[in-house]
């Protein structure tokens, strides 16, 4: 009996040890299953999404959708029951015991859906081009931002000699202005013409948060347009034509052929196609002697940058050329103004 008892105890000990070893080798509770979080982007080149991968059930995961330039995030779609906020580009989700698939959706930025209002209550359409926002119309304000009136209605003699801020409205009785019957109609179509002293007066012309561009601001605009495939040259697809309004006598583009102001005169080769919504128009200029010139043919815009005591840098477009020109002009000349601001 003693021998049998010892054998039985030994067998029980061996079986128990084997079960313990087997349980340790196959304990499913010590192995965590991983589930796949798949993140897609629509359209594919509009941006990218981060945070995808393999995670255990219950894991708290941060996901992010980042658009490329010219696009903006819309929402997440797919298995959004697990997402904290499907409308947020950066959000979180809790992994469950299943695979999850999400799509980050983007849309093109609206480049024309904006306005800004000056101190006189004039409302201007604005356009985002790269990292800048520009007025898509020429300035027509009559007061500085502190409420002071800007000097105007100057004769040619006074205009030629003034070294303080002043503006003029292109003479609607001059040549090539048929269809415009008053200064008010002229200003509404082409804006007002300011001398450089008004453009740089410390009281300011532009709405709060906006400014008259410097020469570097204009250069940044041109560089962006060139980077999009429009060389700043006299070619038909030049940067100037890409920034011009398409309104032109005899334009080959649908909906652009017009003889009504504002518009460019016809040209057999060059025409604006307004690729970016900037809508540059040929408002002409008032020269330093007080004469009005080139409406329908050319547009000129001030920068705040001086070239010398007598002149400053400006930009221009001509109906017969494809570029956006850069030159210096007398500070006493009357040019158009486009206000702008930097954006994030």
Describe this structure in words.
- This protein is α+β, with helices and mostly antiparallel strands.
- It has two domains: 34-108, Immunoglobulin-like; 115-342, no CATH class.
- Helix content is 17%, strand content 28%.
- A four-stranded mixed beta sheet has the order 3-1-7-5, with no helix packed on it.
- It is elongated.
Chain-wise SSE layout:
Elements: H1 2-25, E1 34-42, E2 47-50, E3 53-56, E4 60-67, E5 71-78, E6 90-94, E7 100-108, E8 115-117, E9 123-129, E10 132-135, H2 156-161, E11 167-168, H3 183-190, E12 193-194, H4 196-199, H5 215-227, H6 239-243, E13 285-286, E14 292-293, E15 298-306, E16 311-318, E17 325-330, E18 340-342
Q: Beta-strand percentage?
A: 25-35%
How is the biggest beta sheet arranged? 4 strands, mixed
Helix content: 10-25%
Q: How many β-strands, per DSSP?
A: 18
Jot down its keywords.
elongated; Immunoglobulin-like; alpha+beta
Task: Provide a compact summary of the structure.
This protein has 344 residues and is α+β, with helices and mostly antiparallel strands. It has helices at 2-25, 156-161, 183-190, 196-199, 215-227, 239-243; strands at residues 34-42, 47-50, 53-56, 60-67, 71-78, 90-94, 100-108, 115-117, 123-129, 132-135, 167-168, 193-194, 285-286, 292-293, 298-306, 311-318, 325-330, 340-342. The protein is built from six helices and 18 strands.
């Amino acid at each position: 009996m003693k021998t049998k008892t010892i054998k039985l105890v030994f067998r029980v000990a061996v079986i128990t040890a084997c079960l313990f070893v087997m349980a340790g080798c196959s304990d499913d509770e010590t192995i965590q299953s991983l589930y796949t979080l798949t993140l897609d982007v629509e359209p594919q080149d509009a941006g990218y999404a981060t945070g995808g991968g393999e995670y255990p059930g219950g894991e708290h995961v941060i996901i992010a959708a980042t658009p490329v330039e010219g696009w903006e995030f819309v929402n997440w779609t797919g298995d959004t029951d697990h997402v904290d906020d499907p409308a947020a580009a950066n959000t979180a989700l809790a992994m469950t015991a299943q695979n999850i698939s999400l799509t980050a959706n983007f849309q093109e930025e609206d480049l024309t859906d904006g306005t800004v209002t000056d101190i006189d209550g004039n409302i201007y359409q604005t356009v985002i081009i790269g990292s800048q926002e520009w007025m898509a119309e020429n300035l027509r304000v009559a007061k500085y931002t502190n409420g002071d009136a800007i000097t105007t209605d100057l004769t040619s003699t006074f205009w030629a000699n003034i070294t303080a801020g002043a503006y003029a409205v292109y003479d609607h009785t001059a040549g090539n202005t048929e269809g415009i019957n008053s200064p008010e109609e002229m200003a509404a179509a082409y804006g007002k013409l300011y001398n450089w002293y008004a453009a740089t007066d410390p009281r300011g012309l532009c709405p709060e948060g906006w400014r008259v561009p410097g020469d570097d601001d204009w250069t940044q605009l041109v560089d962006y347009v060139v980077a999009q495939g429009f060389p700043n040259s006299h070619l038909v697809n030049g940067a100037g034509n890409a920034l011009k309004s398409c309104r032109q006598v005899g334009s080959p583009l649908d909906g652009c052929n017009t003889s009504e102001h504002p518009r460019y005169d016809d040209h057999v080769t060059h025409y604006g196609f307004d690729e970016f919504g900037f809508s540059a128009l040929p408002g002409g200029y008032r020269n330093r002697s007080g004469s009005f010139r080139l409406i329908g043919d050319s547009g000129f815009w001030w920068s705040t940058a001086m070239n010398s005591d007598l002149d400053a840098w400006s930009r221009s477009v001509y109906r017969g050329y494809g570029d956006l020109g850069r030159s210096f002009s007398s500070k006493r000349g009357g040019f158009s103004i486009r206000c702008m601001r930097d954006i994030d």
